Structure formats: C-alpha cells, structure tokens
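Dear Dr. H.,

I hope your travels went smoothly. While you were away I took the liberty of generating a structure for the chain from your last submission, since the lab meeting agenda had it listed for discussion. I wanted you to have the full record in hand beforehand rather than looking at slides cold. The sequence, exactly as received, is reproduced here:
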Amino acid sequence: MPEITLRTRDGARFEFPCADTDTVLNAAETAGLYLPAMCHEGTCGACHAQVAEGRYTLGQTGAGVLADAAAGGVLLCRCRPEGNLVINLPYAQTDIRRQRVPQREATITGLTPAGSGAMALTLTLDADPALGAAADFVPGQYMEVSIPGTTIRRAYSMANLPNWDGRLEFLIRLLPGGAFSTWLAARARPGDRLVVRGPLGRFMLDETSPRPRCLIGGGCGFAPVLAMLRHLAEFQDMQPTTLIFAVNREAELLAAEAIRALEAALPMLTVVLSVWHPQGAWSGFTGTAADAFAAMLDEAVALPDVYVCGPPRLVDSVLAVAGARGLPPSQIFTEEVQPR
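The corresponding predicted structure, in token form, is as follows:
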C-alpha cells in the first residue's frame, strides 16, 4: 500500500498509508488528520497542495486544470497515489485538526430572499448527546451543508453569532445551474431536514492586534464579515474599523438593517458601500472592492489589519492593492467563496 508523507510549512511531517483506490484527503482523515478542505469535489480549491515526490493520478476537477499542475499542484480530494508520495502543504501543522469534525442534523427554520439572486437560510441544529443544543463556532468560520438525500455538500459561512439555541444563519448567493443553488431555490422548504458538518475554517479575527481593522466582503462573502462585526459590537469594541461591502449592482446589497444596527453599536465603525456598475441614482462609492480599499488607504493614518472574503478575483485584486501599498502578509487574512 502506498505511503503518504505530508510536510507542513513549519517543517512538521505526517505519514500514513493510502490505498491506490483512495484519495489522499480521505486517507488522511482515516488516519485521524483532518486537513483544510471544503467541497471534497474538486471545485473549491481549499485542499490544494504540491506533490514533491512520487506518481499519482487526478480525478476530474470542477475547476478544470490547475494553473500549477505541471509543477505538482494537486487537489488532495482528487489525488490518488500510484506509489509513495511526498506532499508539501501550504500551511502550518496547527491548521491540521486531530479530532473528527462534528456532524449534526438540522432543520430549515427560515428561508427568504435576500437581495437580488441570494437567499437567507436559517437552520436549527438538533440537540446532540455530546455537544448539546448550542451552535458553537468562532465568527468567520463556516459549515459544510449537505443536500438531503445526496452526497453533495457545500461550504457556507455563518452570518450570526454563536448561540445556545442551535441557530445557524447563512447568506447564500444563487448560481444558475449550481447544485446547491438549484435545490435551495426550487425545492428547499422550511421543515426540511439536512446534515451540517463543522465548524471549519481559519478566517477569524486577531483580537490581540492593536491596529485599526478593514473588513472587506464581496457578495455573499459578506456573511463572515457580518458575523465578525456582530462579535465586535457584542463586546462594544472601540478600535477604528472600516467595513467595505462591495457588489456589482445596488440590488445585490444585503442586510441593510443589520448594517444600520452595527453603525449604531460601533461608534468607531466606518461603512463604505461600493457598487461597481450602479444602475440608478447611486450616491455611494462607485468602483470595485479594490478601488474602495485603495481609497481607504489613501486616507489611513496607519496600515490596518485586513480581512477580505469574496470571490477569488475580488480577493486577488485586494491582495494586489495590499502588496503595492506595503501591507505585511501577517496583517492580511483571506477567505475565498464561490457560489455553487
């Protein structure tokens, strides 16, 4: 049986067997190593890594050919060994979980439109013998949600705060033809039962930092940003904070009431609503998230900690501005989302 060696960014090594019919990601979980991953279907890219030694085959990925495939770039959920493999992981050993990710049943208790082409989904978790009834997570994290009766699951960040009631709130962008989007828009109903797995993810606030913050959300990438801001409001945080919420058109702006509540609760919060292609008499900022971020930096007294969540192109454009302005990588936290 092939032997897999994983090497983390900080030099740790993990070894485990993997049948040649199994994927590296599944074999790692069998060995008690839970690597960062989301969709398990080759579409999200969260399990990307680099094969340094050995031969392997790749199942078809939803994203097509990886840009670095010729140099050993793989998605571990699609990588099957043909012999021993040595794989370099792009993260530290602290990002590898050693305990099985909790899996719980839940009921749809809310399902309403949320702006143009989006839905607000509320789930209530069943009480668990070990975990109780609470929804316990860190603002910024996500859950994997399964379509009932299938193995299809998608990752969505919570927009609400941890609570004792078992309530999970999501803002989900609907993608025409997307598996979860189609089910949610056409067939899902309050009372439906489904399974969630999590919490997962490393996109969370560094509350020890004394620097100002800039939180940037694009589309439904606004959900974890909203959760973070609600957390800051709950603790009456007084650090200067800027929210940049960027969309293509005015109709895509979500959670106006929640934003007004945050402005009232956080006196040091500055809100920038950015619309790239306004279609009406828009009086807010016109441009992309990167444009709004660059304008914010033009006025900044100090370089902030930056938290950005949205589609890959949005994240990349913000990172380009951050790099050009000299922000250290240690002050930048990112999470990519894709409607599916």
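Two observations you may find useful: The longest helix spans residues 222-234. The mean pLDDT is 90.

With kind regards,
E. W.
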